[in-house]
Structures
1.
Amino acid sequence: MRANLGFALQKEGYEVVFICPYDEYSKQLKKHFGYVDIQINPKGTNPIEDLTTIYRYYQAYKKLRPDVVLHYTIKPNIYGTIAASMLNIPSINNIAGLGTLFIKQNFITKIAQWLYKFSQKRAAKIFFQNNDDKELFVFNNLVDENKTDLLPGSGVDLDKFKPLKIKNDSEKFIFLMVGRVLKDKGVLELVEASKILKQKYDNFELQLLGPVGVENRTAITKEEVEAWVKDGLLKYLGFSDNVAQYIAQADCVVLPSYREGTPRSLLEAAAMAKPLIATNAVGCKEVVDDGVNGFLCEVKNAKDLADKMEKMLSLSNEQREAMGKAGREKMVKEFDEKIVIEKYLQSIGEILK
């Protein structure tokens, strides 16, 4: 989505520069946009390291002198905004899926909340991806509500993610989960649900697509995944940039996450007219209308998840196709990324006046 926003800004006559750590996507960005490599430790909590991050942003912004900066993810939202404010450069921030800051109260989360309060006072505009996160930040006095607005997640590219007439190669019904392999994504509950269903059915396959062993406190190890594969509880597909081809071959996309901003995997699957199963959690419940384009299950409840998966299995092809069609219509109406791009263009225009 950020590349598409960049192209939209270029079309409006803006010069666009991406500032982010170098990775496998940086070469592609360099082909179309300005690019500045910046070193950030996204999970680090060392105060000296974070002060260095502010200084790096300050140096980059002082050199570029942008008219406005758009920040995404935690450290750019906080430290990038502080650096930009020191140079009187307006910031537009995108805050997504930070409910854990309020669920697990400890010393680190209190510092994070204070940093958000300190930095977001200096932002010109703050976007949230769901109303629950916005209300939490407003209630805790971390943001000025007058500066906030809601986005439909990151939106979804409806031209890229569209219904495809591709049937899976397997004779079995395919449940697919797309995302980082984390406990917070509900992977443990999903495996347990698969174990429950395996006791009654052998006509389905659970597939898992996403990176294993990522840098996260709830990361699941490669060895754990291999054990599940060996026990026949799931098929691990690895990691791919071409998510659409896997969604196309799935019969239902599942995400039993504990909390989200607005999950891209559900948006993309719904756009491709796939029925969904997700938790009745912040971020997920905005995408799934229970009984219409999928089913909602209880958070951290493997039995209820298994029940909803069994319910999906028992539907006729026509009923599942109707759910998929309803999901596509919902994406067109509510989650088209053009809505997100238009909100950014409008906010930038207002700031630059």
2.
Amino acid sequence: MIKAYRIIFETIDLAEPKKILRQETLLEDKLSKPTNILDFSLNHSDQIQLLKSALDNIMLEKAALINSDLDSCPSCSGEIIKQGKRKSTFHDVFTDHEVKMQRVKCNTCGFEPASTVRTFLKGHTMSADLTKIQSELGAENTFRDAEEIFNKFSNKSRKINNHNRIKLTTETVGLSLKEVNRAEKELLNPTESLELILNVDGGHIKSKATEQRSFEALTSVIYRPDALESNPKGTRNYLSSKSCAASALDDNGKEIITSTIIAAIKEGMTENTHITALSDGAKNCWNIINSLKPLCKKITPILDWFHLSMKMENISLPEPTKIKFKRIKWHLWRGNCSAALIRLNQLKELLKDIKAIIKIKKFITYIENNSDKIIDYRKRKKTGLVFTSNLAESTVESLINKRCKGQQHMKWTREGLDPILQLRAQIHSKDWSSKWKIVVLNTI
């Protein structure tokens, strides 16, 4: 016996399930014993073609329903007449389609409802899922890399997935996301959290502008203490749940402050919440943190130990004084700024190299300016309290560097980068999976 298979698309009447209204064979072939991994399933091209054929039929049936219930003109009650069919394109995740829609028109007043995909879907010719995936890949990869990924899975190059289209989709969705987040602020009603942790940081991006080499983008991540999970593999801990904010705009911090407040509210910030805030010594970062003061019970500011220790690591001194400088770290680890400053000034007097003296002076100023945020890090570590952002993934690394600094030649404008940061912040937050449909529907 020689077997064969047939995959059929059928349209049925739910009132009479056995009654077949239309039937079309999508794929038919012999069944043969597979000899290796290559012929055990359908090859990539056949899978794509099968999917395309199925979707063609589904869209054909759905398109036929669009103006089918229009018996008279909704404007003047005049007669509705058919005027042929219009062809238009629609793009899904893996396939492109030509859709035929019935064109109708009022014989009296000339009223004509939507009869193309673009007009019916209010400017859209791509499926919601394709829009979502394009924006996600565009936010996580270079636009050209995203194009290549699409080509591999679609098994061919598609114009709808060229890097310029992915760039446009990513930027449009990012801007739409910003508006959705703002509108959402008044509707938020999360479970109150009495304790929250906030990390704020900045990263420098190469600028396209000829008058400046780089500009700073700001990020913040806020989470509940119990969201910090240990990694069983022994590598860096991770956050099981968090809310992120980011901005590249030169607007005196307005955008990042607003986004950070929304992120904090999502995590349960109320007037009863105690926030532990960590950052480096940058004034703009602490401006973001201080903007939350009127909205919560208390903020405990901490100069991030990771930034403090890295700043010391980056100061190179002559060999005889290097050991003395490292001992100063012992005082800072215990939160003893007075002793650290005394030792630093003593060390400065021993130095003869002008460059080394300048470095120590700058570090002394850094400690003086941030002395109110330098705490007993040793004690916090012993008691299991957060003292550095390095306990979890780096905010700047995950939100900025992985996308914006992957290639040395990559340069940006603030306006071009900001929508991507909005998307990355949302994707790395906890609620992108539940919000993307609203954002895509809001995107034209």
3.
Amino acid sequence: MKRRSIIFKAPLEVEISAETVPGIGPAEVLVETKFSAISHGTEMLVYRGLFPADMAVDETLPGLQRPLNYPLKYGYAAIGEVIEVGSEVNRNLIGRMAFGLHPHESCFIAGVDEIFPVPQDIDPLDALFLANMETVVNFLMDGRPVIGEKVVVFGQGVVGLLTAALLARFPLAALLTLDNFNLRREASRRVGAHLALDPAQPDTLETAIQWLEPDASEGSADLVYELSGNPGALNPAIAVTGFDGRIVIGSWYGRKQAALELGGRFHRKRIRLISSQVSTMTPALSARWSRQRRLDTAWDMVRRIRPAQFVTHQMPFSHAQEAFALIDNDPASTIQVVLDYGRG
């Protein structure tokens, strides 16, 4: 059996290669991919060659424990049908749709404990967002929004929009979002942001500060999320944060450097910077929260938010190079690009 795989050959260059699929082990399954989602954040750093060269692709995912250098396979959001199972796997899985944290390939082999059967009441396109949703659940666990708080989210890509959508379900006093692209700001308002601003406008920071607290000269936000992927957003994030406020940094910057202004109000206002990444859970909750409990919560949020609403482009798998180039060259027109394996 042959499969087609997307290979990142060099910066801005991907190709589709054919290879023979090895036999599956007794505790493994073979999944025929139907859709995969391109990450507009982390994956585009790989596409652009902006990743650190001294680390594994992902130390926590069995399918991505390789050196992070070209050529490589990458991707972590695939949905497909289980078509074969190993001798130790329940045959009831055959025919089930399953999510895998797996690179873009027409089929893939994974351990049965490495796939996530899609609940029957969840559409496959919605299920494609499981990894993003689990990340967002983790962001909220780390940020711990409180009733009546003023919250700001920098970046309204898929992860930022999902974060705003979950935050909108809290009884917050204010939810402000910022993104460079109008398409994403409109989506942000649809999911519940009270105000969505363009950070590229010269008066945006002053507008945000005064909208959060009329006539204020300094930031008053209780909780800020930096999810733009742009380290330049960190200083505005500090500027809008109030005394003892929290800034959750969910962006991965790769090799991009962050020039932080820490000599002024950052210390005086006792502002806290919190790193957040889905591979681990805050120790404060780990005694009661297992990975499975967080995963179940993420599935429930997928049901409620229906994130397939953020798919702007559904392109044939064979057009992978065009899909990545579109995201790179025309980000203003995209929110989520999905590769469709049934369309070539």
4.
Amino acid sequence: MVSTTLALGPSFLDPEHILESLGPWALWGAVAIIFAECGLLIGFFLPGDSLLFITGMFTAQGFIDMPLAVVCLVLTVAAIVGNLVGYAIGYRAGPAIFNREDSRLFKASHVAKTHEFFEKHGVKAIILARFVPIVRTFITVVAGVGRMPFSSYAVFSTVGAILWATGVTVLGYYLGQIPFVRDNIEVILILVVLASVTPIAIEAIRHRRRVGA
């Protein structure tokens, strides 16, 4: 097992705490969270990137007693299914989703910003968004609202899910076997979070520059 880490926020959002508390059900808890983050509008605050990384590391350490290939497969399937559910929600809700009132778990501004991201990057946004927190939750809905051809959406969302869910999990699996990473996991998680939010920061800076120009 890894050493105790410094929480990056509330314990219920700390990926290591989540998985440790679930014990033998850790993998299936991760599957449920990945599905929610990819497919349900309430999942945008969930720790997807760091959760995948920790899941890979726990697999390497034997805490999750399943082969890496199986772990990657079920997490990727969860992401793909979540993507399809998000698309269906957007397709059925239509433009009304943009007029939904704000609540603690929903912000219309998140949808609006995701729509801008989608308009700027086109179909490749479906892949790029996998690596951008918040955007990856809402991009599926926006694709459905925009009536993106389902065949194209299914292909790009599947590719994105594989690159994200499998890629980050494999990264955690192999890096988690390095003593420095294992003994300084809190620092690594902070780096993972920073890497995740960097695209948002860059986009925000560019937007401010365009507005100020």
